[in-house]
Amino acid sequence: MSALSITRGDDFSAIFTVTDQSAAVNLTGFTVTATVTWIGGSIDATVSTVDLTLGKVRVSLSDVQTAQIPLGRGAEMRFRWTSSGGETRSVRVEIEAKP
């Protein structure tokens, strides 16, 4: 799997589709979060809905947030979706932070 490329110091925004075995996950009724983590730090991304029935969400990071991500491939973005009953599923994506 290739890494998600983010340029440090630039705003970042992308639409992601959550899938399970190639089919979109219906996220209606779920709370979706995204966090970027690395050794020694983390930041919460802004998640907004695009089309929950098709598993589509927009994830955004400000220029100030992307500037905190260490250069190279030492960070990852973890998406979590939690049902109203408390069941949580997640997926992670490696990040390559470029200057």
Describe what you observe in this structure:
The protein is built from one helix and ten strands. By secondary structure, the chain is mainly β. The mean pLDDT is 94. Strands 1-10-9-5-6 form a five-stranded mixed β-sheet, with no helix packed on it. It has a three-stranded antiparallel β-sheet with strand order 2-8-7. Strands 3-4 form a two-stranded antiparallel ribbon. The two termini are 22 Å apart. 4% of the residues lie in helices and 61% in strands. The chain has one domain (4-92): Immunoglobulin-like (Sandwich), CATH 2.60.40. A hairpin with a 5-residue loop joins strand 9 (72-82) and strand 10 (88-98). The chain has one helix at residues 63-66; strands at 4-7, 12-17, 19-20, 23-24, 31-38, 41-44, 46-51, 56-61, 72-82, 88-98.
